[in-house]
Amino acid sequence: MLRFGDQGGHIPVGSWLTVTGLPGTPRLEVVGLAVSISGSADAWVVPAEIARLRPPGTPGTAQMLYRFDRAATAEAIGADVAEVSAALPAGAVTSTRSYLTVKAADTAHVAACVPALIACGLAGLVLALLTVGTVIRRAVAAGSTRIRILRVIGFSPGQVVAAYAGQGLVPAAAGCIGGVLLGNLLARPLLASAASSFGPGVLGVPAWVDVDVAVVMFGLTALAALAPARRLTRFP
């Protein structure tokens, strides 16, 4: 079984590979593709195939993957590795590699994109708030006569403010919901790629994230709409 990546990703299942430089020139069939986020292996075979794939005179080695109870920091993992090494015969442990090192190397590929994504998100938020505020201000300026009529027939200043603010908040609510749904759709390819790399199963945006984003966005939009709408209380 080949590792899915630059090598395995271009070799279809069912292909035959010839291993040169070994006695008998073994031929292997690709029966599937696997994922190795650490890149510590290029191919997997059944144990019976290992002996004939080892060059003559090469000592055998083994890779053991441990899951420790305390693995949040490099210090905790280092202490556990030292304990395991002490329990094994001298020289049995030739090298170790922490999942934190693999994680840091993998996240480094996308770390450069995060500031740009945050900047674009903040710029879009500011533009949306300015748009809402501008729409409400112009509605107030254009409807001064209608506002006076509403005040004459008994509408309180608060009711007039609510009516004009609602003109911006109703489409804003639809935009917040639509934006959350669109964000979920756009996040699917990225989450699918992460799931393929790390193998946790199906990944999705948590429901609490969708709810919090929609509420916060609507709250900021409401503040942007109410600020110019409060000018209505100044009309006689």
> Could you list the spans in which at least 5 consecutive residues all have pLDDT below 50?
none
What is the helix/strand order? EEEEHHHHHHH
User: What is the number of helices?
Assistant: 7
Oligomer: single chain
Largest sheet: 2 strands, parallel
Explain what you see.
With 236 residues, the protein is mainly alpha-helical. The protein folds into three domains: 1-60, no CATH class; 65-100, no CATH class; 112-234, no CATH class. The chain contains seven helices and four strands, in the order ββββααααααα. The strands form two sheets. A two-stranded parallel sheet has the order 1-4. A two-stranded antiparallel ribbon has the order 2-3. A hairpin with an 8-residue loop joins β2 (16-18) and β3 (27-29). α4 packs antiparallel against α6 (157-198) and α6 (157-198) packs antiparallel against α7 (207-229). The chain is elongated. The termini are far apart.
SSE diagram, text form:
Elements: E1 2-3, E2 16-18, E3 27-29, E4 33-34, H1 47-53, H2 74-87, H3 99-111, H4 113-142, H5 144-152, H6 157-198, H7 207-229
Parallel strand pairs: 1-4
Antiparallel strand pairs: 2-3
Summarize the structure.
This protein has 236 residues and is mainly alpha-helical. It has helices spanning 47-53, 74-87, 99-111, 113-142, 144-152, 157-198, 207-229; strands at 2-3, 16-18, 27-29, 33-34. Helix 4 packs antiparallel against helix 6, helix 4 (113-142) runs parallel beside helix 7 (207-229) and helix 6 (157-198) packs antiparallel against helix 7 (207-229).
